[in-house]
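Mods, move this if it's the wrong board.
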Amino acid sequence: MAIKPLLFSALETALNHYLALGENRDAVLTPLAGKTIAITVQPFNATVYLCCSADAIQLLDHVTEPADTSLSGSLWAFGLMGLSKNPMRTVFSGQVK
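Not the wrong board. C-alpha coordinates:
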Protein backbone atom coordinates (compact mmCIF):
# COMPACT_ATOMS: atom_id res chain seq x y z
CA MET A 1 0.00 0.00 0.00
CA ALA A 2 1.41 3.36 -1.01
CA ILE A 3 1.35 6.11 1.58
CA LYS A 4 1.84 9.02 -0.82
CA PRO A 5 -1.61 8.82 -2.52
CA LEU A 6 -3.31 8.56 0.88
CA LEU A 7 -1.35 11.55 2.20
CA PHE A 8 -2.13 13.61 -0.92
CA SER A 9 -5.81 12.73 -0.67
CA ALA A 10 -5.96 13.74 3.00
CA LEU A 11 -4.08 17.00 2.37
CA GLU A 12 -6.26 17.84 -0.65
CA THR A 13 -9.44 17.20 1.33
CA ALA A 14 -8.22 19.29 4.26
CA LEU A 15 -7.11 22.15 1.99
CA ASN A 16 -10.42 22.27 0.13
CA HIS A 17 -12.42 22.08 3.37
CA TYR A 18 -10.33 24.95 4.76
CA LEU A 19 -10.98 27.01 1.62
CA ALA A 20 -14.71 26.27 1.87
CA LEU A 21 -14.78 27.79 5.36
CA GLY A 22 -13.88 31.24 4.05
CA GLU A 23 -16.30 33.66 2.51
CA ASN A 24 -13.79 34.69 -0.15
CA ARG A 25 -13.06 31.27 -1.71
CA ASP A 26 -14.22 32.41 -5.14
CA ALA A 27 -12.10 35.56 -4.96
CA VAL A 28 -9.05 33.45 -4.09
CA LEU A 29 -9.55 30.60 -6.56
CA THR A 30 -11.00 32.34 -9.63
CA PRO A 31 -7.74 34.10 -10.62
CA LEU A 32 -5.87 30.80 -10.13
CA ALA A 33 -8.26 28.66 -12.21
CA GLY A 34 -6.36 26.65 -14.80
CA LYS A 35 -2.99 27.40 -13.22
CA THR A 36 -0.47 24.92 -11.83
CA ILE A 37 1.80 25.77 -8.91
CA ALA A 38 4.86 23.63 -8.15
CA ILE A 39 5.96 23.61 -4.50
CA THR A 40 9.35 22.03 -3.81
CA VAL A 41 10.23 21.26 -0.20
CA GLN A 42 13.94 21.44 0.60
CA PRO A 43 16.14 19.56 1.50
CA PHE A 44 13.99 16.62 0.39
CA ASN A 45 13.58 17.89 -3.19
CA ALA A 46 9.97 16.66 -3.04
CA THR A 47 7.65 18.56 -5.37
CA VAL A 48 3.88 18.84 -4.99
CA TYR A 49 1.78 20.34 -7.77
CA LEU A 50 -1.34 22.34 -6.96
CA CYS A 51 -3.75 22.37 -9.90
CA CYS A 52 -6.34 25.05 -9.32
CA SER A 53 -9.90 25.29 -10.58
CA ALA A 54 -12.62 27.83 -9.82
CA ASP A 55 -13.93 25.79 -6.90
CA ALA A 56 -11.13 23.51 -5.64
CA ILE A 57 -7.43 22.70 -5.61
CA GLN A 58 -6.12 19.30 -6.67
CA LEU A 59 -2.80 17.97 -5.33
CA LEU A 60 -0.66 15.90 -7.71
CA ASP A 61 2.80 14.37 -7.52
CA HIS A 62 3.52 14.92 -11.23
CA VAL A 63 2.08 16.82 -14.19
CA THR A 64 2.70 16.65 -17.93
CA GLU A 65 2.85 20.39 -18.57
CA PRO A 66 5.33 22.79 -16.93
CA ALA A 67 4.06 24.63 -13.87
CA ASP A 68 2.93 28.23 -14.23
CA THR A 69 4.89 29.17 -11.11
CA SER A 70 7.28 27.46 -8.72
CA LEU A 71 8.00 27.93 -5.03
CA SER A 72 10.95 26.33 -3.27
CA GLY A 73 11.88 26.40 0.39
CA SER A 74 12.07 24.51 3.66
CA LEU A 75 9.04 23.35 5.64
CA TRP A 76 10.04 25.92 8.26
CA ALA A 77 10.00 28.76 5.71
CA PHE A 78 6.62 27.71 4.29
CA GLY A 79 5.25 27.45 7.84
CA LEU A 80 6.46 30.95 8.68
CA MET A 81 4.97 32.22 5.44
CA GLY A 82 1.61 30.70 6.33
CA LEU A 83 1.58 32.19 9.82
CA SER A 84 2.92 35.62 8.94
CA LYS A 85 0.77 38.72 8.65
CA ASN A 86 3.10 39.70 5.81
CA PRO A 87 3.91 36.44 3.95
CA MET A 88 5.79 38.21 1.15
CA ARG A 89 8.49 39.10 3.69
CA THR A 90 9.46 35.40 3.68
CA VAL A 91 9.75 35.44 -0.11
CA PHE A 92 11.82 38.60 -0.22
CA SER A 93 14.09 37.43 2.61
CA GLY A 94 15.16 34.55 0.37
CA GLN A 95 13.73 31.78 2.57
CA VAL A 96 11.22 30.89 -0.15
CA LYS A 97 12.24 31.22 -3.78
